[in-house]
Amino acid sequence: MIKKFLNLGLQPLANQYQKKPVKLSVEKGQLYNLNIFFNTKSKLVSISKRIPSEKMFNSKYPYRSSMSHTMRTSFKNLSKKIKKKFKPNLLLEIGSNDGALIKNFKKENVIGVEPCKNLARITKKNGYLTYDKYWNFDLATKIKKKFNSVDIIYSANTLTHISDLNTVFKSIKYLLSENGIIIIEDPSLLECLKKNSYDQFYNEHIYLFSAIAVKNLLNNFGFEIFDIENLSTHGGSLRYYIKRTSYKKQKISYRVNNQIKKEIKFGLHKFETYKKFSINTLRSKKNLLQILNKIKKDKKKILGYGATAKAVTVLNYCNIDKDLISNFTDTTPEKIDNYMPGKNIKILRYNKDILKNYDYVFLGAWNFKKEIMRKEKKYIKNGLKFITHIPYPKLIN
Ligand code: DWN
Predict the structure, then answer these.
(1) What is the pLDDT of residues 61-74, one digit of tens each?
(2) Where are the alpha helices (DSSP H) in 49-182?
């Protein structure tokens, strides 16, 4: 049974930054009701609204993985590990974005798959074989004809974005070599609930995975998880190492059961846990608004740092407009001088002096808190205060 546990109100499409301030409407399909559900059988958590992929992931996709030092380092370390441990002849990445991972491999050893043509263009230009297509059975067939099989299929922060997971795994199964490995990383549902990061929910995140749900899902395809790593990226992610059930030589780590036990202890298999999360979410909204309104009353100015997809959920759920947060700043060229969808807050180009004009910073990119606070330590010493809503709304000195 599929049961609803959270409504985050009317939301615009995240990552559709507006060229000029516009009032979006439900009638024109620019706003949708963001409802989140729990499947009591498969234990999968998903949003109900499905926006066609072509509307979200096209030649104008603004998010680039390489924009943060944290992610560049994470991909670099992983590539070293993959080379050492698995020595793949051929690795394929589903959702290769701007090449943050594949650029760490020799060109003859990797294939990128990236449907956002503006991003695929970057890796193609750098000489990496990239298919600017959606991952599906046709594409897997095409690649199989050329390369026969692939040793590792990797995908970070992408599978949660694809509605039809059956096609995803059927196509992987077809192309992966007999002893091949799948490595998937995505935000952890457990961390999302623990940190009360309701902003992980938006139109692109169709699913948020727990190890419990991934295990159930893989069962249908003759795959199983043999190892799990907890990562700090994107607010807490899980990296799943997966093999065919028939590949017995690869042992299963105790970490798999440990993670599942942790999730069961927290209650990720029970609907009541999600109901609690929805109460916490409402409390978070009230408390964040209280902090922002107090700052407004004191006639102080707030800058949003990181025009993230997550911040779009926060702004629209909490009804925060430019009276409360004057501007956002971001380093991504595609976002600069645009407006935050739904709330029309202008995104300014980041420069090292920008913080001088503000009294407070709201961490839109709270998942990069350490990196950002390190970068801005001069201002923090001089009394600039940061506001975060994770794990609960508060000021950070
Ligand atoms: O799954 C997804 C994740 C991986 O990326 C996508 N659906 C969309 C996107 O979500 P997000 O926008 O919430 O991701 P990030 O990685 O939290 O975005 C960080 C933003 O902050 C980027 O626009 C870059 C910017 N930034 C910055 O301006 N200065 C980041 C850092 C660290 C900085 O110092």
Answers:
(1) 999 999 999 999 99
(2) 53-56, 69-86, 117-125, 137-147, 165-175
Distance CA 17, CA 259 (A): 37
pTM assigned to the model: 0.97
Confidence of residue 397 (pLDDT cuts 50, 70, 90): confident
Shortest-distance atom of ligand 1 to CA 367: 17
Tokens of 316: 């629209």
Residue closest to 161 by CA, chosen among 130, 195, 207: 207
Q: State the closest ligand 1 atom to the C-alpha of 365, by its place in the atom list counted from 1.
A: 17
Best probe residue, ligand 1, of 55, 64, 67, 336 (max atoms within 8 Å of C-beta): 67
Q: Edge-to-edge strands of the sheet including 237-244? A: 130-131, 110-113, 91-94, 150-156, 176-187, 237-244, 223-231
The structure tokens listed for 374 are: 């390190």
**From the CA of 353, how far away is ligand 1's center (Å)?**
21
Give the Å distance between the CA of 281 and the centre of ligand 1. 22
Q: Which residues pair with 3 in a beta bridge?
A: 38
How far apart CA 7 and CA 281 sit, in angstroms, is 10
Ligand 1 geometric centre to CA of 179 (Å): 35
Q: Is the dihedral of CA 316, 26, 117, 104 positive or negative?
A: positive
Strand partners, 130: 112
Distance, CA of 228 to CA of 253 (rounded, Å)? 8
Structure tokens at 3: 């049961």
Query: 66 C-alpha to center of ligand 1: Å?
Result: 10
Cα(198)–Cα(235) distance, integer angstroms? 11
Ligand 1 atom nearest to CA at 330: 28
> How far is Cα of residue 363 from the mean position of the Cα atoms in its chain?
16
Mean pLDDT score of the chain? 97
Q: Smallest Cα–Cα separation from 304: which of 315, 291, 318, 293?
A: 315
